[in-house]
Specification:
The protein has helices at about 5-35, 40-65, 70-95, 100-125, 130-145, 155-185. By secondary structure, the chain is mainly α.
Length: about 190
C-alpha cells in the first residue's frame, strides 16, 4: 500500500470540495426553482426532484468511497447513495404518477437521509452543527410530507424546495471548507 503524498491529498481534497460545491449548486438551483414556481406541474416537479435525488445519491456514494474514514459512516453513506439514486430514478421514470407516490418517495428519502446524516454528525466532529442542522431539517420536512399527504402541489414544491436549498447550501459550505483545508496542506518538498 503506497502512502499518499501531500500533493495527491491536496488534489483529492480540492477535487472533492469542488464536487460538493457543484452538487450543492445543483441542489440550490432545484430548490429555488421549486420555491419560485410552486405551481409547477407534477411532471416538472418530479423531474427536478428526481434529478436532485440522483445527484445527492451520487454525492453520498462519493462520500462513501472517498470522504468518510469510519467504516460505519462509509456503509451508511453507501446505503444512502444507493437509496437516493434508486428513489431519483423511480421519480424520474414515473413523473406522471400520482402526487401520493411522489410524496411517499421523497418523504421517506428525506427522513432516512436525515437520520443517516444525524448519525454521521454524531460520529464525526467535523462540521457537526452544520450536518445536524441539515439532518434535522430533512427529518422534519420528510415527516411533514408523509404526515400530510393531501398537500397541494404548491405546498409540496415549497417543502421540497426548502429541503433542497438547505442541503445545497450545506454542500456548498462543506465544499468551500474542504477547498480551504486543501490549501492548508503543506506542499511536497522539492528534492535538491
Amino acid at each position: 500500500m503506497t502512502a499518499t503524498s501531500p500533493t495527491e491529498a491536496f488534489t483529492d481534497v480540492r477535487r472533492y470540495g469542488t464536487v460538493l460545491i457543484g452538487a450543492g449548486l445543483v441542489g440550490l438551483v432545484a430548490g429555488v426553482l421549486a420555491l419560485v414556481y410552486p405551481g409547477v406541474t407534477l411532471l416538472a416537479l418530479a423531474l427536478i426532484a428526481g434529478i436532485n435525488l440522483v445527484v445527492l445519491g451520487a454525492l453520498s456514494l462519493a462520500d462513501a468511497f472517498g470522504g468518510e474514514q469510519d467504516t460505519t459512516a462509509r456503509v451508511l453513506c453507501a446505503v444512502m447513495g444507493v437509496l437516493g439514486i434508486i428513489a431519483g430514478l423511480v421519480v424520474m421514470r414515473r413523473p406522471g404518477e400520482s402526487l401520493l407516490a411522489l410524496l411517499v418517495v421523497v418523504g421517506i428519502w428525506l427522513v432516512v437521509s436525515g437520520i443517516v446524516d444525524f448519525v454521521r454528525a454524531v460520529a464525526n466532529v467535523q462540521n457537526r452543527a452544520l450536518r445536524m442542522l441539515g439532518a434535522i431539517a430533512d427529518v422534519v420536512l420528510g415527516i411533514l410530507i408523509l404526515a400530510l399527504p393531501d398537500l397541494s402541489l404548491g405546498t409540496l414544491a415549497v417543502l421540497i424546495g426548502l429541503s433542497f436549498v438547505v442541503r445545497g447550501a450545506i454542500a456548498i459550505v462543506r465544499g468551500f471548507h474542504l477547498r480551504r483545508a486543501a490549501d492548508e496542506i503543506p506542499a511536497e518538498p522539492v528534492p535538491a
